[in-house]
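User: Please predict structures.

Assistant: First:
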Amino acid sequence: MKHIVFTVTNDLTYDQRMQRICTALSYAGFKCTLIGRERPSSAPLANHPFEQVRLKCWFEKGKLFYLEYNARLTLHLLRYQPRAFCAIDLDTALPVYLISRIRHRPFIFDSHEYFSELEEVVTRPMVHKVWQWVEQFTMKRFDIGYTISKGYADLFKERYNVTFAVVRNVPLKRPIAQAREDSNPYLIYQGALNVGRGLQNAILAMKDINGLALKIYGDGPIRTELKNLITREGLQAKVELCGPVTPGELRTHTQRAFAGLTLFSSKGLHHQFSLANRFFDYFHSGIPQIAIDHHEYRSFNDAYDIATLIPDDSAEQIAAGVNNLQSDEQLYERLKANCARAADENNWQQESIALTNIYKDI
């Protein structure tokens, strides 16, 4: 059995993409080990058909966390002699490259993000330079690479003359078990609470949106900032920070929502060429969404018409998009109906074939 070791910096519990990847490869006959970190707040790991390992760290965030985690990960990886090592994004790439060369094994690079172009990176010059160096080092040395969007693949080709396959973040196609609760309609955001996701403006937009609440599912570094903003603007009755929930619970909440939010700023190429998990999760749950008019989202929406696109993530544009979706019942029902066709043609049952094709000849 071919053994593949994957590395991430999260605590594994809520990482739907890695759960899908490792499960698909396990069913295809691979032995998979997924390594992340254990936090004081980490929930017990759910059962999956692959091995899960969490490393404990003293530091929770910032430079000291990355230094400590990479050191611990390097030492831990010495325990393995798999068929290949796979780093998920730049933040685990250096340990994986080092140990893959010590073990004389292929170094696979899975770019979930354009890490060096994240807004929280490009807005800090010294941090940006460090991650650019890590990116340049990694791009010259991986043996196999794949990423989440054609936009990212094209950028990597243009910048580094490297070839990336594309494996999108589409979910498994499942029956939609829950209908929307008309008595308490709400908008939903799901995902990490990071800068550049339009969350502050989405909260402010609720001042001009009637008849809907906003539920935000997830956790991240700006959670306290968002909580303070909600209190300062007196929006406690309209906006709820729900925290992270398991993927199964999240699907239930999403299916009940009026519409979803997929919002990104224009700072950094990461946002401009991304294809976020939530973009697919919303139409797989049968709900329309308000999405930012960046390249990849526009291209997909031109084909399937499942979202209202807005030009930027300002509070005014978000409110206008949501209010138009509420007032135009014909538009809402058309987008909702189109979600089923989009899910039929874009799902993990099909996308996982591209994944297994990447790994089958290793």
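Second:
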Amino acid sequence: MKLVDTRKIRQFQAMRDPMSLQASIKESNRCLLCHDAPCSQACPAGTDPAKFIRQIKFLNYKGAARTIRNNNILGTVCSFICPVEKLCEKACSIKALEDPIDIRGLQCFAAEYGNRFKLEPQEKSLKTKAKIAVIGCGPAGMSCAAELAKMDYDVTIFEREAKSGGVGRWNIPDFRLPGSAIDQDFQNLQNLGVEIKFNSAIDAGDSISVLLAEGFEAIFIGCGLSSPFTLKMFEGFTNTYDYNSFLRMVKVNRESLQLQDKSVVVIGGGSVAIDSAVSAKACGAAKVYLVFLESLEELPADQEEIELARTMGILFRPASQVSAVISDGNRITGLTGCEIEWLEPGKFVPSNATQVPGTEFSLKADVVIQAIGTSPGKEVSQLSKGMKTSGKGVIRVGETFETSIPGLFAGGDVVNGGATVVQAVGEGKKAAVAIDHYLTGRKAI
């Protein structure tokens, strides 16, 4: 993991200093200028790192900023949180000889350079084409809306919250993703002429029919996941949170959590579990335990996130399962559990775990945070009669991201069940192209 400043984490400031101009020149000069660059091929959002690195290398910093902004409406956001070690940096050709190019650092430098030196705004949509509704102003919705606006569609985003950004705004801690990065990308979206209606939830029964009746000729659903899973054993206790509520509280009123010198137990091993654990530690918790079913080698979180948790002193309890609550009235005071083994290797679900006798443990717990997954809100299944869902309620789509209802498209977490911001951006872009093909093909008939 590249060096982070733990003092900044405790102050909820961006944990890394931006790459300097001199460092960016030096780093870009390591690039091999590959033909058919594998780093660009490995980017789900099509940000084209090979091109912006080449532009930095030849001192065209504004050109690099334009490339990022034009290819990825959340280019600033992704420069902070994209799992590059699994994507572009993993594919970097120079990796065979030495460390991969610091693509995230260069993207962050270029995006910030463009914001600081005021790139000219992108051309506004002429709005000469059909009206399109986008549900959700998160990564998938913003990406889809931006691409459609560039094609001169008249796009309106309906967002239930008072601000844009979705999961990045409310669930990713400020030390990993500062709010200013979201604001910068949102400004670029507004410059394209997209209309955004905040505090406008689309959750009434058969809302899609209502939007179609209002003249929208195609609709994209990018509302993400909003219903965290919880365990029955924690029902009725006052000192437990689901990760969604906890991370949102960290964003808007972390002082009210009163975690100073407390013992916190986080259940789960994914990215949101680690974000919750590190946030609790940054809020002053004395001890933070991370209890998860997987072994350390099986953890679903990114390696950088795992290293961050270790740097912050998070205590790991791998291959372990909480089985009972110790309480005093309606407050949890501790948890008991046992180590587990998988009945069937590679099947990471609670029903596949068997407890190992003689490995029982107990933990003091002043606060418990559940971070064990999320599903779409109940309103998703009510949006349109006949829209097919599957699994935990995610929307079923075809290769073009069209649902079972003609003219109704979907992408991002509400389709893939929860992935990365950069994947949601890529799906939004692909859906925009499909919507354009759908509308132009319909008119040609």
